[in-house]
Design a protein that fits this description.
With 326 residues, this protein is an alpha+beta fold. Helices cover 37% and strands 26% of the residues. It is built from 8 helices and 11 strands.
Length: 326
């Protein structure tokens, strides 16, 4: 009977050791906060681009990498490859978010933002790009610090904006206790909706009163489509106000062409008026000159003369003309 009693005592001692120690009732403000050894929110973002992007777009991508300590880099992707390969690349890099920059004609920049591997994903047209080196603003934040995300109240009014808000907050928000991040906040990302576009700004927090100084970069996201899957799938929403950059440039060329034609027509009209031949622009004015009854009689006489002519004479004249031509 003694052996099982000893086993019970050992089990009770192990249970007492496993219980966590209670927190102290009073904690002084000078004492540092206990740091967690493990970070729970393991968000990793794969940031890369396809071949054919502009130098300014490449600098914008590098600026975003500096602002996101939880990112992972990747080499440029060939344009001939399908976008579904990105899911495999994220799986190899152990990433659950992806930001891909796609350039076209070395002029237009598109940005894909996706939740890998189940989706959703969104496609944006990036406009009005200004990098940190171009702006040279006074703000300066510590590299690797966590940002505060500020969203416009209009993000809660429409369903597609709420989905984009969740996608943006998960990609740009730095996880707590990330190994490469700093444990404090010193800058703010602002996302505002204006003119059916999302405007991005980055501000440094100067003081507790709310004084801010812009750091950069600046860019505007024009949403094109939202897909149910990662880099594909059924389209959940499509922007009715979106106009492709190529079509927009075509409209500008056509408007310039119409301006030129209007200017030429105005010059021709002005030259005819100055030469004294402006009456030729209105050929029906001579009908109403003089007595209208006499004009009507003359027109009727001309009609009767044409009707009285025999058809054979008209045919002979036609045949004669043909023979002369031969």
């Amino acid at each position: 009977m003694k052996k099982p009693v000893k086993r019970r005592r050992n089990a009770s001692e192990n249970e007492k050791k496993a219980e966590p120690e209670p927190l102290p009732a009073v904690r002084h403000s000078d004492e540092p906060l206990p740091k967690k050894a493990k970070w729970v929110n393991k968000q990793r973002v794969l940031v890369f681009s396809s071949r054919g992007i502009n130098h300014r777009d490449r600098h914008l991508m590098e600026d975003l990498k500096k602002l996101m300590p939880h990112h992972k880099p990747e080499s440029k992707m060939e344009r001939s490859k399908n976008l579904s390969i990105v899911n495999e690349m994220c799986e190899m890099k152990n990433c659950n978010k992806a930001v891909m920059f796609e350039g076209r004609k070395k002029m237009d920049l598109y940005m894909w933002m996706a939740n890998v591997p189940n989706g959703p994903s969104a496609k944006f047209l990036v406009e009005n790009v200004y990098t940190m080196s171009e702006l040279k603003l006074t703000g300066n934040c510590l590299r690797g610090s966590r940002p505060l995300l500020s969203f416009d109240p209009s993000f809660t009014e429409k369903p597609h904006y709420t989905l984009l808000k969740e996608l943006l907050s998960q990609t740009f928000g730095v996880p707590k206790h990330h190994p490469k991040s700093q444990p404090f906040f010193d800058h703010v990302y602002t996302f505002t909706v204006l003119d059916n576009r999302i405007w991005f700004r980055n501000f440094q927090i100067l003081s507790e009163d709310g004084a801010l100084a812009e750091v950069g970069p600046r860019f505007v996201l024009n949403p094109v489509k939202i897909f149910s899957g990662s880099f594909g799938g059924a389209s959940l929403w499509e922007n009715p106000f979106y106009v492709s950059p190529a079509k927009y440039r075509q409209q500008i060329r056509l408007s310039a062409k119409n301006k030129y034609l209007n200017r030429v027509q105005q010059k021709a009209h002005a030259s005819t008026i100055d030469s004294g031949e402006g009456y030729k622009m209105k050929p029906l004015d001579d009908i109403f000159e003089g007595d209208p009854l006499e004009k009507a009689q003359q027109i009727e006489e001309e009609k009767t003369q044409i009707e009285e002519k025999p058809k054979n004479v008209l045919r002979k004249k036609k045949f004669g003309k043909k023979k002369k031509q031969k």
